[in-house]
Amino acid sequence: MNTRRRWGLFEVFGIEMEYMIVDRDTLAVRPLADLLLRDAAGSGEWVEDVERGAIGWSNEIVSHLVELKTNGPAASLAGLDEAFHADVLEANRLLAPHNAMLLGSGAHPWMDPATETRIWPHGGAEVYDTYDRIFGCQGHGWSNLQSTHLNLPFADDEQFGRLHAAIRLALPLIPALAASSPFLDGRFTGYLDARLETYRHNQARIPSITGRVIPERLFSERDYRGLFERIASDIRPHDPDGVLDPLFLNSRGAIARFDRNAIEIRVIDIQECPAADLAVIGAVVALLRQLTAESAAPLEAQQQWPEDLLADILLAVAKDGDQARIVDGDYLRMFGLRERAMTAGDAWRQICERARDDFAPDARRTLGRILAEGPLARRLLQATGTTPDRAALQDACRKLSGCLADNRLFP
After folding, report:
1. DSSP string, 235-256
2. What is the DSSP string of 38-85?
3. How many CB atoms lie within 10 A of CB 369?
4. Which band of pLDDT confidence, cut at 50, 70 and 90, is reported for residue 1?
5. What are the two backbone dihedrals, phi and then psi, of residue 326, each rounded to the nearest 5 degrees?
6. Of 26, 112, 292, 294, which has the maximum CB count within 10 A?
7. Whole-prediction pTM value?
8. Cα(74)–Cα(224) distance, rounded to whole angstroms?
9. Dihedral class, residue 136 (left if φ above 0, else alpha if ψ from -120 to 50, else beta)
């Protein structure tokens, strides 16, 4: 019998943040995650996870990346940025003897995945090696993308359908706040959220795994299980030994985790510091609270939106961020916005003003700066220009490392 506690909507939060490990001098990526986790565990053995009170650390598919995450459900977002920041400082302390440190933002500006990718070689390597064999992980969409994942609970099927409908509608707006990856291969990509644009192609060989990034109109566990069955069927010829679990293969921008009664949102680029991450997460949660409460549109109307229309809006916002123009008045009305057209940034400003009492003073100030100055990607472009040389990118990354160390916004 399953005795696991089932939390209701917004009762608890799970947050995962992925950070690059880079050289302190050159700022190039360094594949040191195994050394960092070993040193943090203090056992002298290779480990995949380390528990450190409120925050846990773990590996990911590539060795220059480490994930910091809430160690179990957190009852409140308040104070979490300080908890994450304390562990960032501890990770930097452990990395200092290796002349390395953590760095935020959604993608490394000049990493060469073809030559610098190192797949995690220790526990769980069979899974990672299988991914690499099937999809080839020496590409930006696999080895050079850092995100913040937000896990939100549901207690039953009704709450799942309500939350999933709200998240599907919110996903297209998120890059307007969170885009932080304008550069790849040392150049401006034309997208403020190049991580998201690259991510949607990384498993194109098997289209059912990612779909259109926006999840399909599935609002019950029974219906969603059909998606898992389709993924399992499609992967079987490539993975006859069944190494890869369809539950984890699902790579949409939000994925249902019925094993822990949560939906995991995956389209949020990681920011320059935990204070910025938690401000963005707070805005997303405030919007989802409004949607699940049906404050502007009934649930039935929210559930009608096909993924193709939402995916088109998502791609436009991934490209132009806060300045992306949304011209679908019916979509805006889902959020209680009466304009026939407006920018994504203006939409967020109205949404957040309506929910201003939901934010603690520090988060309100941080979010206010993001809303006024644009997402991190726009601020990076303002600092470097659209045709930066390596020196300009290195200077921006050095400033980013200071932002992470001090838990403050860029610039």
Report:
1. HTTT-TT--S-HHHH--SSEEE
2. HHHHTSSS--SEEEETTEEEEE-SBTTEEEEEESS-BS-STTHHHHHH
3. 13
4. very low
5. -100, 120
6. 292
7. 0.96
8. 26
9. left
Burial-class residue 95 by CB neighbours within 10 Å (0-12, 13-18, 19+): buried
Q: How far is CA 325 from CA 123, 194, 332, 343, 344, in A?
A: 46, 18, 11, 4, 6
Rounded percentage of the chain residues whose pLDDT exceeds 90: 91
Centroid of chain to Cα 338: 29
Cβ 319 vs Cβ 344: under 8 Å: no
Q: 223 CB contacts (<8 Å, ≥6 apart)?
A: none
Q: Tokens 């490209």 belong to which residue?
A: 319
Tokens at 334, concatenated: 């889902």
The residue behind tokens 């949304």 is 326
Would you give the DSSP letter of residue 216?
P
Which element (helix H / strand E) includes 373?
A: helix 361-373
Structure tokens at 111: 């990493």
pLDDT at 382 over 60: yes
Q: Cα separation of 120 and 122, whole Å?
A: 6
Burial string for 155-190 (b: 16+ CB within 10 Å, else e) reads eeeebbbbbbbbbbbbbbbbbbbbbbbbbbeeebbe
CA triplet 132, 183, 67: central angle to 5 degrees? 50
Residue 262, Ramachandran bin (φ over 0: left; ψ between -120 and 50: alpha; else beta)? beta
Q: pLDDT digits over 323-346, tens only? A: 999 999 999 999 999 999 999 999
**Which tens digit of pLDDT belongs to each residue from 126-156?**
999 999 999 998 889 889 999 999 999 999 9
The rounded distance, in Å, linking the Cα atoms of 16 and 404 is: 16
> For residues 175 and 196, what is the distance between their CA atoms, to the nearest angstrom?
9
Q: Alpha-carbon distance 272 to 266, whole Å?
A: 17
Partners of residue 65 on adjacent β-strands: 20
pLDDT score, position 4: 64
For residue 307, the model assigns a pLDDT of 97
Question: What secondary structure does DSSP assign to 141-166, as a single string?
Answer: HHHS--EEEEEEE-SSHHHHHHHHHH
